Amino acid sequence: MTVRVVLASGSPRRHELLCQIGVSFATRVPDIDESPHCGERPADYVRRVAREKATAAHPGPDELVIAADTTVDVDSSILAKPADAVEAAAMLRTLSGRTHLVHTGVSMHRAGHELTDVCSSSVEFVPLDETTIDWYIATGEPFGKAGAYGIQGKASLFIEEIEGDYFNIMGLPIRLVYELSV
Predict the structure, then answer these.
(1) Are 56 and 27 in contact (CB under 8 A)?
(2) What domains appear along the chain, each with residue ranges and CATH number?
(3) What's the rounded mean pLDDT across residues 119-142?
(4) 45 closest CA partner among 86, 101, 125, 109
(5) Which of 31, 62, 69, 73 is catalytic?
(6) In 3D, which of 114, 136, 1 has the Cα closest to residue 66?
(7) What's the pLDDT at 1?
């Protein structure tokens, strides 16, 4: 039986990463409520949301569904996608000159079986001044990204050090996807 891979995500970065490693797939964007539950820890949040996305994609018997969710964790608080420029600026000020965690939950569903795990990486930002924050927001890049930045873009200028999986910070830890699929 041939297995059809389905990416349960509309993320252009996840799409790009799977294409980069030669995976052929269809895209099925699930419609779920991604609001954190009261008191939910960031790593638990991404694990739950990834699992819910995979389930909501309604995997068929010959499909392998890959779902993921990424968040930025500062002092055990979730920094989701900013709603506007004011929120993006506040997030960037919070990240400025300090280290934070990026968690990505990955959930894979196939033939009634589910494997879900979380990859975490540490990212240290250089101090950011208001001019730099304003410039970055004006690029439009902070929007649609957890923590108001994309490491693969212009925000790469802000990165002092990373520890862990770079692709996790982009939104899909490729190594974890591979480990869960074998």
Answers:
(1) no
(2) 4-181 (3.90.950.10)
(3) 98
(4) 101
(5) 69
(6) 114
(7) 59
Q: With H, G, I as helix, E, B as strand and everything else as coil, classify residue 111.
A: coil
CB 53 within 8 A of CB 67: yes
Query: Which residues are within 8 A (CB) of 20 and not within 5 positions of it... i.e. 6 or more apart?
Result: none
69 catalytic residue (yes or no): yes
Dmax of the chain from CA atoms?
56
Task: Assign 41 to helix, strand or coil.
Answer: coil
Give first-to-last CA distance, the chain, whole Å.
Answer: 16
User: Mind giving me the DSSP string for 44-60?
Assistant: HHHHHHHHHHHHHT---
How many angstroms separate the CA atoms of 147 and 168, rounded?
Answer: 14
Could you tell me the sign of the dihedral formed by the alpha carbons of 45, 28, 12, 106, in that order? positive
Is residue 42 a contact partner of residue 76, using CB atoms and an 8 Å limit? yes
For residue 161, pLDDT over 80 is answered with yes
140, 81 in Cβ contact below 8 A? no
Q: Beta-strand (E) ranges in the chain?
A: 4-7, 26-27, 63-74, 77-79, 99-110, 113-125, 159-163
Mean pLDDT over the full length of the chain:
95
